[in-house]
Design goal:
Layout (H helix, E strand, L loop, with lengths): L1 H28 L4 H10 L2 H8 L20 H10 L3 E4 L8 H7 L1 E4 L2 H13 L13 H36 L4 H15 L2 H12 L23 H39 L2 H8 L4 H19 L1 H11 L1 H7 L5 H11 L2 H29 L5 H4 L1
Helix pairs in contact: 1-16, 4-5, 7-10, 7-13, 7-16, 8-10, 9-10, 10-12, 11-12, 12-16, 13-16, 14-15, 15-16
Protein name: Microcin C ABC transporter permease YejB
Keywords: Cell membrane, Membrane, Transmembrane, Transmembrane helix, Transport
Membrane topology: Multi-pass membrane protein
Length: 379
């Protein structure tokens, strides 16, 4: 087993490299970029132009005032290209001017894409994700700052989905075809069919003061003055705030996992070893949890990494937007719109690494659930 785990860990490196290479290549083909975003912002704000060019901006039509309609000044654009890592200045020996002076006095050389990718991956291997183009903060600090929201949604949603879905799926399998199985299946299918966006809005309307009851807060993870509450009060306030977002993010995974558990148990219950165990006089509970459970749970465990990563990183953007939660979903969306490449690639690298590690942990859970599985022998 040790050799298998070592091989899986070594495969993480080329897999991450491939993920980053494909996404980096795609960004080179997508129109627009950080400079276009800056120009778009400057064209609509005289104050912003004053900040970067020193122009007064009193008369947008005057020659010495507003210049946003003409795009970025060449010297300032060259300075940004160097700061963002797209170019470098070749200055005479001993030259000591700042970047803006170098933009005027030195020759600019664009850095080819392959070299920029190599530099970026070299930094990422040292877990140096750089600095955001637009937020004046390191990518690591931004991820750490937004992580609690995504951890809250991901962990609670995954935990609740498994705690409810697995017992419910087992119960449905045992009572397959009964009235209990029929009406619970109807509820589950209806829940799965409801888009997460509409369900989240429905929760807000019903329980957050939209039109009916104001039971839960509308936004945020904590109330004003949360620091002054007691330890118990902080915990209750936290649970009060996360109830609606967690319910909204759990609904689709809950339905999928319940049906997956039921079908997996049904397949195992019909096998010969179950009939043999019953013929030996074992109780239904011993048969179900002593023999069927381990085999039936394998396919459920196999879906754990994708469910966890999907809820933790991918499925939170709508929930965070609706409930005004400033987490990784919102950060990733805004960074993609703004073409904030350090944040995009930094979060992609971190999330890809976490997803691959979770996949290895899933294999270890296979062995824990069913010791008969030997990945080393299969190799």
């Amino acid at each position: 087993m040790g050799g298998y785990i070592l091989r899986r860990i070594l495969l993480v490196i080329p897999t991450l490299f491939g993920i980053m290479l494909i996404n980096f290549a795609l960004t080179q083909l997508v129109p627009g970029g950080p400079f276009d975003q800056i120009e778009a912002k400057l064209e609509g704000s005289g104050d912003a132009i004053e900040a970067v060019t020193g122009a007064s901006g009193e008369d947008p039509g005057a020659d010495s005032g507003y210049v946003g309609s003409r795009g970025l000044p060449p010297e300032f654009r060259a300075k940004l290209e160097v700061e963002f890592g797209f170019a470098r200045f070749n200055c005479p020996a001993g030259y000591s001017g700042n970047l803006l002076a170098q933009a005027k006095d030195c020759e600019k050389e664009m850095i080819p894409a392959w070299e920029r990718f190599t530099i970026m991956m070299g930094k990422f291997l040292r877990f140096d994700f750089g600095t955001s183009y637009f937020r004046s903060a390191s990518v690591t600090d931004l991820i750490v700052e937004k992580m609690p929201v995504s951890i809250t949604l991901g962990l609670w949603s995954t935990l609740i989905a498994y705690l409810i879905s697995i017992p419910l799926g087992i119960r449905k399998a045992v009572r397959d075809g009964s009235s209990f199985d029929s009406w619970t299946s109807g509820i589950i299918i209806a829940a799965y069919a409801i888009p997460g966006l509409l369900f989240a809005i429905l929760l807000l309307v019903l329980f957050a003061g939209g039109s009916y009851w104001k039971i839960f807060p509308l936004r945020g993870l904590t109330s004003p003055g949360w620091e002054q509450l007691s330890l118990v009060g902080k915990g209750l306030d936290y649970l009060w705030h996360i109830t609606l977002p967690v319910v909204a993010s759990t609904i689709s995974s809950f339905a999928t996992l319940t049906l997956l558990t039921k079908n997996s148990f049904l397949d195992e219950i019909k096998k010969h070893y179950v009939m043999t165990a019953r013929a030996k006089g074992l109780s239904e509970r011993q048969v179900l949890y002593g023999h069927v459970f381990r085999n039936a749970m394998l396919i459920v465990i196999a879906g754990f990494p994708s469910l966890f990563v999907a809820v933790f990183f991918g499925g939170s953007i709508i929930i965070e937007t609706i409930f005004s939660l400033d987490g990784l979903g919102q950060l990733g969306f805004k960074s993609a719109v703004e073409r904030d490449y350090p944040v995009i690639f930094g979060t992609l690298f971190a999330f890809g690494l976490i997803g691959l590690v979770v996949g290895i942990l899933s294999d270890l859970m296979y062995v824990w659930v069913d010791p008969r599985i030997d990945f080393e022998r299969r190799q």
